[in-house]
Amino acid sequence: ERQFVAIFNMVFAYGGQFAFTELMTDMQQPAEFPKAINVCTVIMSTLYAGLASAGYWSKGRNVADIVIFSLGDSPLARVAAGCILIQALAQYLVNLNVWTHNLMVLVGRATGRGRSATARSASEHCRWRWLLASAFVVTYSWLVSMFLPYFSSLVGIVASSTYLVCAYTLPCWFALKLLRGSMWRSELWLCHLIIPVSLLLSCAGLFSSVSSLIQDIRSGGSGFGPPV
Questions:
Q1: pLDDT class for 69, splitting at 50, 70, 90?
Q2: Residue 226: pLDDT band by 50, 70, 90 thresholds?
């Protein structure tokens, strides 16, 4: 079950498909988006592989759910934590832009505010409302990070129930519905294969993540920080 949780944590690490439309909309040259995705994927894969290799080489099977928890309290651990903080802040700023835009569009449609309801990019929103919405999202995220225990297992639950569906199931389903007439036969077969496989993997991952969470709760501990 832990293996499934680890796999879906990797899916979570690569899962950015939910933001692709918004990112392309904000780009001056949207046609360059595939090139940007390819470059980012190569960079992320290199960094993830290096981190995983270093963690396993130094700690073996004793690596905790999050590698930084296995380093102990040392100057090198503090440097590693600082690097992770920089990466997390950069990633969070990108996601913050997407979350704030989507939140303002939804609120604008619900309240009838025409400017936010029809906005297609961040630059079309009112600046002070954008600041308030961003502050709300930051506060909400901080509360989740501070008071939500067993984060690794919960990430596995989120990834298994949403990321595979958003990254593979729905795109293939949309392609079959909208582009069936222009797709090659091999593409049709691949889409028909990916839909059930991704759904089965999502169910298996969700079951494993929930089971892992139940085991963590039964084993005791606070649910924060490294396992005890």
A1: low
A2: very low
pLDDT confidence of 51, banded at 50, 70, 90?
confident
Contact 206, 198 (CB under 8 A): no
Q: Do 150 and 216 touch, CB atoms closer than 8 A?
A: yes
CB atoms within 10 A of CB 180: 11
* Cβ neighbours of residue 72 closer than 8 Å, sequence gap 6 or more: none
CB 99 within 8 A of CB 137: yes
CA distance linking residue 174 with residue 37, whole number of Å: 21
What angle is formed at CA 192 by the lines to CA 189 and CA 198, rounded to 5 degrees? 130
Two structure tokens written together for 128: 């002070």
Which pTM value belongs to this model?
Answer: 0.56
Confidence of residue 4 (pLDDT cuts 50, 70, 90): low
Do residues 150 and 217 touch, judged by C-beta distance below 8 A?
yes
CA angle 52, 171, 164 (to 5 degrees): 35
> What's phi and psi for 195, nearest 5 deg?
-60, -55
- Cα–Cα distances (Å) from 57 to 48, 49, 68, 190, 225, in that order, read 14, 12, 14, 37, 22
Per-residue pLDDT at 156 exceeds 80:
no
3-state secondary structure of 183: coil
CA distance 103 to 111: 12
| Other Cβ atoms within 10 Å of 72 Cβ, number | 9
